[in-house]
Design goal:
globular, 2 domains, 32% strand, seven-stranded mixed β-sheet, alpha+beta
């Protein structure tokens, strides 16, 4: 028996232009419509096996959260049938189900009771919940005094300690410090090892790649792909860079020094603007657009810059960051021993950085290009391009797998030195 089954499920919402139209529709007893229907999900069919980690991916508005709310029983489908077999613990929104006037302790007992646990059951779990949440004396204060991070700490602690058969997690791990996120991910791995069915929604492709087994890719309420993570995730990432003009990478010919004039993303930009980055592209070694890095492959990072003033001592490079936003590695022309020529005002310069990729953990890595002159930053663009790292053959613990050669130094010896 499957843990969850969707059988031709659709979910629509009534959209009213103003509150008065809702009253008009009530007044005529529905004989005339004053609303338009918004379809969040349409004819969706899939099943989730017991004990698997099933991920739902897609852009904002694709129907991911609606699907989870249907599984949790918060919403009812407009048509079709949702079948859920097992006790569900849901972590859908920050503190959903928490009473802000109650203390953290009172909300632990309230949520446990909602999930069908007796007071004795909650008593036996309470110390573990309190220890996992790590919010100190705030456990005895009203939830309305909590920060968003404290709320999600407590909500997650409750959800994973009520012995669910099906755990729903919707973007909750995006809140909180790095240490807590890592602890949550370890707990998710423990639950998976125990055979708990986990349904996980996240914009962090690294988290999805790390724990997921199968994935459903939703696009405007319909299933665009369903299958193994290693098949669905690369297709999704590729579509995110080709479906939208703003994210479309430059499709240059595989010739050297072709000027790049596209910046896929700008999270933040700073510098004195005596020069500017006009384009960046991440490609394979043949100059073709790259959507997925593979271990032990060669990539080409092409950066084009333009001088807005005469530049004498120029350096160009980029910072590579991991999915947590931490600086992972930085490369520049000067650091690699290349002296760049002076650039007159109005002229452009294009550099190709050829990099041999080691076996990194399967996460998303961003590239932040920059140009400076005489040590002063002229232009810096945060997270201009993001590329997913594929899972390699070796298990990566931490951030990178170092190739090594192991030899037997000596045979086993006794204390007397006799082998």
């Amino acid at each position: 028996m499957n843990a969850v089954e969707f059988d031709r499920v659709s979910k629509s919402y009534s959209i009213y232009e103003n509150p008065g139209n809702r009253l008009k529709e009530l007044a005529v007893l529905g004989r005339r419509s004053f609303h338009r229907d918004f379809r969040a999900l349409g004819e969706l069919s899939f099943s989730i096996r017991r004990g698997e980690v099933f991920c739902i991916i897609g852009e904002n508005g694709s129907g991911k959260s609606t699907a989870l709310q249907l599984i949790a029983g918060i919403l009812q489908p407009t048509s079709g049938e949702v079948r859920v077999n097992g006790r569900v613990a849901a972590l859908l929104e920050l503190g959903a189900g928490f009473n802000p006037e109650f203390t953290g302790r009172e909300n632990v007992y309230l949520n446990g009771a909602i999930l069908g646990l007796s007071r004795r059951d909650i008593d036996s779990r309470y110390k573990e919940i309190e220890a996992f949440a790590e919010i100190g004396d705030f456990i005895n204060r009203p939830v309305k005094t909590y920060s968003s991070g404290m709320v999600v700490r407590l909500a997650f602690a409750v959800a994973i300690h009520v012995d669910p058969e099906i755990l729903l997690v919707d973007e909750a791990l995006a809140v909180g410090d790095t240490y807590f996120r890592h602890r949550c991910m370890r707990r998710v791995h423990e639950l998976r090892a125990r055979g708990i069915t986990i349904i996980f929604v996240s914009h962090s492709t690294a988290d999805v790649k790390a724990i997921g087994e199968r994935a459903l890719w939703l696009d405007h309420g319909t299933a665009r792909a369903l299958g193994d993570i290693d098949a669905v995730l690369p297709a999704y990432l590729a579509a995110m860079t080709t479906d939208k003009p703003v994210n479309e990478p430059v499709r240059t010919e595989p010739q050297r020094q072709a000027v790049v004039r596209t910046i896929p993303n700008i999270d933040h930009r700073h510098g004195d603007r005596r020069a500017e980055v006009i384009g960046i592209a991440v490609m394979n070694e043949y100059g073709e657009p790259l959507h997925l890095m593979t271990p032990h492959s060669r990539i080409l990072v092409r950066i084009s810059v333009r001088a807005c003033a005469d530049l004498k001592r120029t350096d160009v490079g980029f910072m590579m960051r991991n999915h947590l936003g931490l600086d992972f590695s930085g490369i520049s022309a000067t650091a690699e021993g290349h002296s760049l020529p002076s650039i007159p005002k109005g002229k452009t310069l294009t550099l190709d950085f050829q990099i041999d990729i080691p076996e990194l953990y399967p996460g998303a890595f961003s590239f932040s290009p920059w140009i400076e002159d005489a040590g002063d930053v002229c232009d810096w663009i945060d997270n201009a391009v993001t590329v997913q790292m594929a899972r390699g053959e070796a298990s990566v613990y931490g951030y990178v797998h170092w190739p090594s050669r192991i030899e037997l130094n000596s045979a086993l010896e006794t204390e007397q030195g006799i082998g």
